[in-house]
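Sorry to interrupt, but I need a hand with the structure work. Could you add the entry underneath, on a fresh line?
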Amino acid sequence: MDMEFTAWSSLHSVMNAERDRRPFSGATLRRILDFARPHRRRLLRFLVVSVAGALLAVATPVLAGKVVDAIVRGGPSDTVVRLALLIALIAVADAGLGLVTRWLSSNLGEGLILDLRTAVFDHVQRMPVAFFTRTRTGALVSRLNSDVIGAQRAFSNTLSGVVSNLVTLVLTLAVMLGISWRITLLALVLLPVFVVPARRRGARMASLQREAAAHNAAMATQMTERFSAPGATLVKLFGRPADESAEFAARARRVRDIGVRTAMAQSGFITALTLVSALALALVYGLGGHYAQQGTLEPGAVVSLALLLTRLYAPLTSLAGARVEVMSALVSFERVFEILDLKPLIAEKPDARRVPDGPVSVEFDGVSFGYPSADKVSLASLEAVAALDDRGGAEVLHQVSFTARPGRMVALVGSSGAGKSTIAQLLPRLYDADAGAVRLNGVDVRDLTADSLRETIGMVTQDGHLFHESVRANLLLARPEATEDEIWDALRRSRLDGLVASLPDGLDTVVGERGYRLSGGERQRLTIARLLLARQRVVILDEATAHLDSTSEVSVQEALAEALEGRTALVIAHRLSTVRAADQILVVEAGRIVERGTHEELLAVGGRYEELYRTQFERPDTAPHAVG
């Protein structure tokens, strides 16, 4: 069974390592060692126990040969008993060491997985929004799962396997050569008959494995997109279920066919090892028996050689594939380091300070901005492209300047794509300005701590995003220490307390993926309740009522009036009725502020605002509402 497992592991390693043959630098190896340094004591204990297990593996066949010799010679029975007891003690010790090895291996491997996953997760959280707009979520999750586990195997499996197999091989060969060098060398001649074809077979199977991985990834992407609430709705409305099913089934059938070929390769691989091992054993028994009959070799030596031979082929096979195992593990480390080496564009300064206390003013001073190119925020492997798009950096905001005094509302209006949302995203540092400055109470946001920005600035977007968690969990995201009374107060002020009270589990009701168990208006009011609970001093509303019907809009507007009371507000609106009461309205076109003033002032000017207003309210079904 050990040899069968080793054979399949070797083939599997070859197939995996063939997927990537990038060169590896000494710097990569040094980083791996640096990463493993905190675990060096556990790693050393693991290696010591592995070596001890290898020593015991060689001792048993030698003692078995001595038992045979004692029986053949007709010596004292207590000698045989003592040898048998010693073999039993070694078996018990070997079993105990096996458990200890397994415990140390699990402890070391899981510890490395924890460190790697935490490092990658924390690093990804610091990446800018531009990173997430380009990256395939599945590819990123794969780095946290399969690649981290692949890197962990370098320590828990590959390293210990190389050490223990090398010790076993050296000791076994030394003992076998000491017993009979002729028989040992003849037995080893058969090894290439197994190893060489196996490696070639593994290389051929690698291309099939790559194809299967590509099909599996495509099926996973198809399922992820089609099984989400909006994806399923889109397919039902505009998709072709029969074609979708046929496409999925074609990929699944190809994966099935590859699975059958892989299973047959596994069977053939194990059969080859079993056959070669049986031929080698026949050689040992035949030639060894001949020497024993001639009196040039002890009968017990023949038995020892046979038992040692069964322990020789497994480490030989594993060491033959050690290089590809190491390469496979290094590929995983490289892919993990690739994420960790991607520097976040937005970083907190070492001497960053908190937002000053009291009411907050917002100032944009000559702000210009262009979205970063892909090569600055992403990786080709995460986007599934051969090369990153190097376009980008073109200026989309030009010398934007305005001030929102404490407790006042500034509204941004204009055509779609004019740059309104981009302006809003610079305030909480989702992006950083290329020129000019964005200030809170006179302090550049780049000089403020990320925590204080989150505590100061709240944002409600048009999609009202919620996590697939309970109502309570979605609300406490804003302020985990909030009490039950504070939660219900926020729900009451957002006109949502009655609905939540009527839900089957109240606050503990799960809202579904992206909150799809709630209506659009209910989702928006829940995000407003989260804003109220956070008690942030600056509020950004980005098209918060854009997709709501008139009835839902009225409810949301009432909740927004509560959210904006006494706060500095930046409101982006397509419906001009929602911003008539703003203290200042900024008309944005092509990344520039082309008009500014109150509602009445801008109508009197007769410019772009008046044109937008006339276009909207010439529709008979448009009834103006005002925030506040």
The chain is about 65% helix and 10% strand. The first helix runs from residue 2 to 17. The first strand starts at residue 362 and ends at 370. The chain has two domains: 2-340, 362-375+394-617.
